[in-house]
Design a protein that fits this description.
With 473 residues, the chain is of the alpha+beta class. It is 37% helix and 20% strand. A 7-stranded antiparallel sheet has the order 15-12-14-13-17-18-16. It has a 5-stranded antiparallel sheet with strand order 5-6-10-8-9. Strands 1-2-4-3 form a 4-stranded mixed sheet, covered by helices on one side. Helix 10 crosses helix 12 (319-330). Bound molecules: flavin-adenine dinucleotide. The site of flavin-adenine dinucleotide has 37 residues, from strand 3, helix 5 and strand 10. Flavin-adenine dinucleotide is lined by residues 41-42, 77-85, 88-89, 100, 120, 142-144, 146-147, 149-151, 153-154, 156-158, 207-208, 212-213, 333, 423-424, 460, 463.
Length: 473
């Protein structure tokens, strides 16, 4: 390192001066409360204040920020809604947090082609509210009030992935600002194309480390003619998991199949006022399609549930009741947090091939008993994906115990041919598992891509890729 090299603080000042010279100082904030909001995501433990926050309103402004930061070697951390849970948005000191949440325009809706183009800061809830009268909807539904850009960057999914897929399957194209400030478009509006490298997929899940997404071309879906929701309770967790596995293995096209174990269900009954249900392990189902198809799915699902000692279906007949049930499911994290107000909740996210789910959950249950911790379990079990919400006090030994359990659960999933994250992503929290999951050779290719696309390592440094040798070409 050259001794005369400017310090990180000097480089940040130079980048801000360059933005000021371009008439963009009104977009910059260094107010303590704004810096604090941008110092962490939902994982409060990994906070670090950025040097400044830039509130972007257009692709051109994002490009100006990246040009200034590239020239001055200033780290840039994209910030959508900050709901990610693995330390993704935690900046390095003297970084610029680039907030895209004001970029909420819907640029076009092509109802006849079932697609739309939106700015990256729009939330999926706002999109669905604004396109309601087209009869179309966007199905990917993570629990937080996330932005579509953030959802692309984490390759998010949710309760409807079992039927509609994740962000990977529902994004047709992107506008991306590269590290140098150059703007590119990937993909397009067509449903398939066999031309060139699939750069859209490369940016989906790249966690702000390869480029900043400013616009997203999304697939939309027709609202189904008929929707039914039901819940089925089980005295035994294994029976509920077996039911979910058999439903998927039989190819029943359920729209959603979600599990809440008895600890989570008790918390959700209290938090979401789910009167009339018992604190037992519960599967939430949704069926959609034409009335005859729905009836067929329901009959097949109910038969499987009953053969696994399910206590019968309780139907949510009205739209209001369905909304109440799914809101309770989406609020499960907050319900778990409310079990011990002020406690910390570590949300483990792992996924295995569906046939190994029973084995994984049985092992996890033993790990939880051995730990003595209180841990609600819930999951998008139709995908083989589940979360353990590890509740811990704010002491150091409590945190260490919780982290040890988290690591044990993830190691179990990897040993069963799974992945250390089904949907939350890597951020900083899952870095240590990447080598085991992907192997050296694959990580070397990922590092080579990063080096090519961001040679000055300004884009969300320290996330997604564990530090390691540079690719030797
Ligand atoms: C209660 C709760 C429930 C959740 N449930 C789910 C769930 O069911 N499924 C699921 O997948 N996740 C879930 N999450 C996690 C989180 O909501 C998702 O990871 C979400 O996709 C993050 O979106 P965001 O807008 O908040 O992104 P942020 O947290 O702001 O950013 C996430 C990452 O994306 C990068 N980024 C953000 N915007 C852009 C952009 N425009 N261009 C490039 N990079 C960008 C950031 O730098 C960061 O690395 C949940 C979180 C909470 C708190």
């Amino acid at each position: 390192m050259n001794e005369c090299a400017p310090s990180p603080a000097t480089r940040l000042s130079a980048a801000l001066a360059s933005l000021d010279a371009q008439g963009l100082s009104a977009q910059v904030s260094t107010s303590p409360s704004v810096l604090e909001t941008h110092s962490h995501g939902e994982a409060m433990d990994a906070a670090c204040l950025p040097g400044a926050v830039f509130m972007a309103e257009s692709t051109e402004q994002v490009a100006a920020v990246l040009r200034a930061c590239h020239a001055n070697r200033v780290p840039v951390v994209a910030f959508g809604a900050g709901t990610s849970v693995e330390g993704h948005v935690t900046p390095t000191p003297h970084a610029i947090s680039l907030d895209l949440s004001a970029m909420t325009a819907i640029e076009e809706v092509n109802a006849e082609d079932l697609d739309c183009r939106v700015q990256a800061g729009l939330t999926r809830q706002a999109l669905n509210a604004r396109i309601r009268d087209t009869g179309l909807f966007f199905p990917v539904d993570p629990g937080g009030e996330a932005t579509l850009g953030g959802m692309c960057a984490t390759r998010a999914s949710g309760t409807a992935a079992v039927r509609y897929g994740t962000m990977k399957e529902n994004v047709l194209g992107l506008t991306v600002v590269l590290a140098t400030g150059e703007v590119i478009r990937t993909g397009g509006r067509v449903r398939k194309s066999s031309t060139g490298y699939d750069l859209t997929s490369l940016f989906i899940g790249s966690e702000g480390t390869l480029g900043i997404i400013t616009e997203v071309q999304l697939r939309l879906h027709g609202r189904p003619e008929s929707v039914s929701a039901a819940i089925c309770q089980f005295a035994d967790l294994d029976d509920a998991v077996q039911t979910a596995m058999e439903i998927i293995q039989c190819g029943i096209p359920v729209s959603r199949v979600e599990l809440l174990d008895s600890v989570q269900m008790a918390a959700s009954i209290r938090y979401s006022g789910l009167e009339g249900y018992e604190p037992l392990t519960t599967l939430f189902f949704e069926f959609a399609g034409g009335p005859a198809a729905v009836q067929e799915q329901v009959a097949a699902t109910e038969a499987i549930a009953l053969s696994n000692n399910g206590r019968g279906f309780a139907w949510a007949d009205t739209a209001e009741e369905r909304t109440r049930l799914w809101k309770a499911r989406h609020d499960a994290f907050w319900a778990a947090k409310a079990i011990e107000p002020g406690a910390r909740v570590i949300s483990t996210d792992c996924i295995v091939p569906i046939s190994r789910l029973g084995e994984l959950i049985a092992g996890v249950r033993d790990d939880i008993s051995a730990s003595g911790l209180r841990v609600p379990l819930l999951g998008h079990v139709g995908d083989g994906n589940f979360h353990a919400l590890i509740i811990t006090d704010n002491t150091e030994p409590g945190g260490a115990l919780a982290l040890a359990l988290d690591r044990k659960i993830v190691a179990r999933a990897l040993a069963l041919g799974g992945s250390c994250s089904g949907e939350h992503g890597v951020g900083m929290g899952k870095l240590e598992f990447l080598e085991t999951e992907h192997g050296d050779g694959t990580l070397a290719v990922m590092r080579a891509l990063k080096n090519t696309m961001d040679p000055r390592n300004i884009l969300n440094p320290g996330k997604l890729l564990p530090p390691g040798r540079l690719y030797q070409g």
